[in-house]
Amino acid sequence: MVYSRDVRTLVVADEEKIDFDRELRADLLISCGDLSDSFIMQVAEMTLCRHIFAVKGNHDSSAPFRAPIKDLHLSVHEFKGLRFGGFNGGWRYKPRGHFLYEQDEVQKALESFPPVDVFVAHNSPHLIHQWDDNVHVGFKAFNAYIERARPQVFIHGHQHVNAETLSAATRVIGVYGQRWIRMPSVHRKPTDKHARPE
């Protein structure tokens, strides 16, 4: 079965600023964290978007997302034939705080996480788009997941960069503020474990 090739996606992260044409419309809104629910909902209303996926950032509250925002942290949701999954938070750079993890905690959490087409995270993979400081250390488990699961797209925030890097066959996209992305088309047979490029 061939699914829609035109999933117009708006990704927002780390900065509550509207810096795009207010007449544009999104099929899917993705938040990579450190944004309030009220801002996410404002962007959704502006773009007439009814489908919202998100992960929490290390500066977000521990409260659950308000409906209809769907939390991707260690869960899988499907939209137009594409499987989305994700992981929240950042590296544990201080002893207390929400959504802070040691490297081995992330590794253990992702060991059995299934392959998805699009992986959404707050933090970046290790040494990809990474700041040279003690706060923005990327997760090594993300690199291992990319190698094992081969998602088509890996989207992250946290590093305050708008950049794209190819890691193996995966597009790693860093977002700061907002970025429009057209999601890849996929072709999936009933026996496929995950989607592959059309």
Structural class: alpha/beta
**Which overall shape is indicated by the principal axes computed on the Cα atoms?**
globular
Radius of gyration: 16 Å
Unreliable stretches (pLDDT < 50, length at least 5) are 187-198
What is the topology, as strand order, of the major beta sheet? 5-6-9-10-12-11
Would you tell me which CATH topology applies? Answer: Purple Acid Phosphatase, chain A, domain 2
The portion of residues assigned to helices is 10-25%
Name the beta content range.
25-35%
Distance between the termini: 10 Å
Find the CATH superfamily: Metallo-dependent phosphatases
In the CATH hierarchy, what is the class? Answer: Alpha Beta
Biggest sheet statistics: 6 strands, mixed
Question: Could you give the order of the helices and strands?
Answer: EEHEEEEEEHEHEEEEEE
How many discrete domains? 1
In CATH, the architecture is 4-Layer Sandwich
Quick one: how many beta strands?
15
Arithmetic mean of pLDDT: 89
Q: Helical segment tally? A: 3
